[in-house]
Write a structure and sequence with these properties.
Layout lengths: L1 H32 L4 H6 L3 H7 L1
């Protein structure tokens, strides 16, 4: 019995970990994308780099 009740808990923990990884990836993407904000593009430290790409 104890093994049967233990398995779902492991699965749940794994699912939570996957969700945390996903959220961490999403926040990383958001942090990478937010400099696309026009004001930041004009004033931020990445402005020179972005203008170099264009």
């Amino acid at each position: 019995m104890s093994v049967e009740t233990h398995q779902p808990k492991k699965k749940r923990i794994r699912r939570v970990k996957q969700e945390l990884d996903y959220l961490r990836r999403e926040s990383k993407d958001w942090r990478m994308n937010w400099p696309n904000c026009i004001q930041f593009r004009q004033t931020g430290p990445l402005a020179r780099f972005l203008s170099g790409l264009e």
